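Researcher: Next entry in the queue.
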Amino acid sequence: MAKVTVYSTPTCPYCNMAKDFLKEKGVEYEEIDVSENEEKAREMVQKSGQMGVPVLEIGEEVIIGFDKEKIEAALSK
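Model: Structure for this entry, 77 residues:
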C-alpha cells in the first residue's frame, strides 16, 4: 500500500473527518500538524499549492480537502 500522509491542524473538522475515514478503512498514516511545524507547512503548500487543510498525500497523489471518492481511488491504486 502507498504511504499516506495527512497534513492537518487540530482545529480543522475536515481534517478529523479525513483521519477518521482512514482509520475506518484500516489505513495507517503519518499525521503532520502544520500549525506547529513551519517547515512542513511550507512543504505542504509547495506540494499542493494550497494553504488550507487537510492535504492528503497518498503515494504520489496529492488530494486537497476531504474528498472520499478521490481518497478511495488513490488508496485502491
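Model: Residues 34 and 41 are 5 Å apart (CA to CA).
Researcher: Noted, moving on.
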